[in-house]
Amino acid sequence: MFRIVLKLMLQGVTDIRRHPWIQVLTLAAVTLVAFLGGLFLLVLHNLDLELHRAGGDIQFQIYWQPEAEQEMVRTQWDSLRELEHLAEIKTFSGDQALELLMQRLGGTGDFAWLQGNNPLPATALLTFSVRDDDQQTWAKATYLHLETLEGVEKVSFNPLQLDLARGWARFSNQVIWPLILFLGVVLALVVGNTIKLSQLHRRNEVEILRLVGAARWYIQLPMLVSGAVLGLLGGILALLMLKGVQLSLRDLLHFPPLWLRLDYLPSSQTLAFLAVLVVMGFLSSWVALREK
Amino acid sequence: MISLRHVSYSFGTQWALKNISLEVRKGDFLFLVGPSGAGKTTLLRLLHGAIPLKRGQGTVAGFDLHALKARRIHLLRREVSVVFQDFKILPDRTVFANVALALEVRNMPRTHTERRVRAVLRGLDLENKMHVSCAQLSGGEQQRVAIARAVVVGPQLLLADEPTGNLDRELAMRLMSIFLQFHAHGTTIVLATHNQEILACVPDAKILHLEDGAVNWTNWDMDVSK
Q1: Which end of chain B has a smaller Cβ tally under 10 Å, C or N?
Q2: Which domain range does residue A37 map to?
Q3: CB count, 10 Å around CB of B38?
Q4: Chain B residues within 8 angstroms (CB to CB) of chain A
């Protein structure tokens, strides 16, 4: 039995050669539709990334008391680096802050006389990338945690930034993901119908197979495999074309002030993309072969 | 082999078969005759499960047509072969591939398939065309391929729907002699035709004349209660 199933599945692959022009045209149509869908997905994915990069971050600025022990502050900086959701940390000792201030002010900013008696405190600028739904609670808890650190005088963060982060997250969840789902449905329908139409020319063959006593599974298995293989091949070709487009456009917008770099689809989306095409190839073949 | 009791069939409100009762024994040769639209094709389609039996009772080759589920129809078709006027062959495949198809779906070993197909094609004078694409054959040759595919499995019952309809007189007579060969080997044959001339080829055949979906006359005692 296993041998027969294997033989029929292989037949499904080799059957693609039987009507080469129809299959090539179907493959071209599936590839182009999948490529268009993939292109849209690529844009949405990069838009989502950019939105999170640009607006999805929350920053806390921590000011230590000027008299706080430098050694203790440095230990705290190390522990801050372990915090969850931390995307970036910038730290400044009082001396570093003074030096930076002098650099920025140039010739007019000679504060050398302050060295040894520096009033500037140690500070840290923490940037978090938070994707949780309950960012408000997270921000409050983080604020309280930072404020209670030994030697800390003040912690500040901009609540507007939190609102912005939540806004981007909401936009991403309510617009981008539904758009991706909608795209998936459109892609599935168009690819499905294309493969279904290509299978209809085999109705004569199906009728003859029924006539000579072939069981339903015997007729359907090779054709379902053919449909799935067409979907898979179309998907792989579309992804290759997409990779070519991504590589050629990668640095097109990577200049100030945009600094946008086109990333390729992550592996999870690539696999989902292929899975949609394979499943639709399979299902559409099944629909085309349903007994009337 | 075939037993029908009060079988009727309608397409919507149009009755194609009206109260047909029929008994065909193993080894019989039955001609279904009558004008176009008399119900010959509908009756043949009913006999190989292409349309369901809704009214009346019927068994064919041991299968109860009324109780036959769609997923088991292929088992009936392994016992009942059909030949059509339009051949129903795959033109892009070779003669061998077309005939072997009937054995392949039964998962017959390759060597057995080759031996059997070759033997049948030899009998039908098609052995030298075995590897020729069916698209390159004449109408008569294509019809013989269809017959080869039907008989290669050694069916209990062979149904033929106007098999000589597309052929000239000479080819039609040759085809009838092929049917007679298989009949002589014990195959039950039901052949639908409106060609009166071929009836004479089988003098001892049963003849059932259909008209407007009903039995008009027969050349044997039709009392199925006997």
Answers
A1: C
A2: 2-53+167-289
A3: 22
A4: 48, 70-71, 73-75, 77-78, 81-82, 88-90, 92, 101-102, 105-107, 149, 153
